[in-house]
Specification:
By secondary structure, the chain is mostly helical. Helices cover 80% and strands 0% of the residues. Helix 1 packs across helix 3 and helix 2 crosses helix 3. The chain is elongated, with a radius of gyration of 28 Å. The N terminus is likely disordered. This is AraC family transcriptional regulator.
Length: 164
């Protein structure tokens, strides 16, 4: 009899613990959802600042780092990283290289004469790269071809356009 009474208390205690855990789990889900909304708003605010920074061509500064950009945007590195990961679908380094390459291509298409007067390392440095190797690799990742081949084709197109 004592054995059954003891089992009853254990089962009742288990039920109370389980119900309490479910309550805690449900309320913590609610808190997480509320925190997510706050974090999403913060991340969207950071993204707005990043996009403004892009319009100012801040990415051309070869000294920019995730930490220095976070400081410029009055946030922290973790939030900046999260915003870029979530909204740009890449890490900070890939994002930065991609923005630089896209700008370089656009800028050089508008100013093809620069290709005739600048060396490849000068071009890389103009667009925020400290290394020709990093520039070439980032360029090839973005376009599927090396900058040398891409720029040669641009020069040929410009030449044909001028001949017509």
């Amino acid at each position: 009899m004592l054995f059954f009474l003891l089992i009853g208390f254990v089962l009742i205690g288990y039920g109370v613990v389980k119900a309490t855990q479910e309550k805690i789990s449900t309320s913590s889900d609610h808190i997480i959802q509320q925190n997510y909304k706050v974090k999403r708003e913060i991340l969207e605010d950071i993204l707005d600042k990043v996009e403004y920074w892009e319009t100012q061509n801040g990415f051309l500064d070869s000294r920019i780092t995730q930490r220095s950009l976070a400081k410029t945007l009055n946030t922290n590195s973790a939030y900046l990283s999260k915003a870029i990961n979530v909204y740009k679908k890449q890490n900070f380094a890939s994002y930065l290289k991609g923005v630089r390459i896209a700008y370089a291509i656009d800028h050089l298409q508008q100013n093809p004469e620069m290709l005739k007067t600048k060396s490849m390392i000068q071009i890389a440095e103009m667009y925020g790269f400290n290394s020709l190797t990093v520039f070439t690799k980032a360029f090839k990742n973005k376009t599927g071809t090396t900058p040398g081949i891409f720029f040669r084709k641009m020069i040929e197109q410009e030449f044909r356009k001028n001949m017509q």
